[in-house]
Fold this protein.
Amino acid sequence: MSSASRTVPLYLFVLPLLYVPDVGFSLQTPIGLLQPSDFVLVLLYPAMLLGRKHPSGVAGTVKRSFLAFVGIALLTTLLIPLRYPDYDGVLRTTAVCLAKLAKFLAYALLGFLVARRIETAREARLTLRSLAVGGLILAAGMVWAARSEPDISQYDKTRIAELYKGSNGLSVALGCLGVFFMTVQYDERRPRWLRWFLSLSMFTGMVASLGRGGWLGAVTGSLYVGSQRKGRIAGMAAAVLIIAVLLVAVTYVPMVQVAADRLVAKDESIEAGDAVLGMSSEGRIATWRHEGAKIVNAPLLGVGFDNKSEPTGLWDTGSHNFFIQMALETGCLGLFALLVLLWSIWRSAPIGMLQGSSEHTQQLNLAFRGGFAATCVGAMSGSLLYGTLLLGTISLLYGLVAASNRFFRSSPFDPPLVIASSRVDQLYSRCNCNQERAYHDTARVRDDAVL
């Protein structure tokens, strides 16, 4: 193996740093609190842009629908000064919203960049390992933050909020990663218990974060994987693991029990008709109805991306549902473009032979679909897919899948899954072309004989 092939790309060392907790590096800005992951992007982008780049493998429908959604979000944001000309802070609000849209793009494009960097199975395997290290860092940070809470007998996320911004979104990210690593066939040279260790660690961090959207999303993703023939065992194992972790945590950790109780408890504020709704599942649904009714105020293009200024009439806390929030901020056109984008991403990770994927990539695509389903369900519990680490995580997973589907084409001589050993990579790189040529020549002779 050449020295170039043994070189580890620089971005793989930077990637896990996205998941480190805030230990004093946060910065309050007009667009919100910037945490370490936002600063790591400044290092990660140059690291990804260095070196050789290849076609991303991202489906054309995904690119077009993504550009359509971003274009609508940009247009409706630029229209804020025309929509609210009498508002004193309209120019500042417009600038802040444009900055938030730029941050959204910074996280969303991570997958495209990593897909352009991955060329071989070895690079894909190393990227997968880098994501696993990042997930373990995030899970350990969540558990440590939960243990440091001043009062574990209450639903108190003071310490968690100090270390991580948007713990609800990170709960969904951990659920997504847990389902993914339980389903994907990890490095064949590693013991099988490694996938159990990774998933258990991430599900434990997910439960410790007290983000109930992540719990529901992870269960949904694992059930989807279990409903497919190729993932029946992995999906059921993930679901059992999630339920086991939840039962242990509810039994021995009081604040997790309080969080679980709020999923089914009724809120007195709803019954009293107060403006501020509660945090139970009933309270969330009431919040959806309360904010969703405001879509009629700007049904076509919305009020502007992440614009919750005073003249919009939207709650500062949002609708606690990303899809409703996008309908409010980018209108029905933006919501439609977003749904087309999500559907295009789903379709570009096929799990059936007749859909164009090779047998060796179907398990990877199924793992991604499980994590993607967990993310979409989790996004219904909050405005979690702005410029956040959850968006970056699902984007990186999709970039890994897109690159793998690009260089593992459907043929009788496909190498094993993305995490196959480097010796197998080397073998196929030397003889795959000759084997394919012989296969097609034989087929052509057979067809000529038939004719």
Q: What stands out?
A: The mean pLDDT is 80. Residues 59-81+128-387 form one domain.
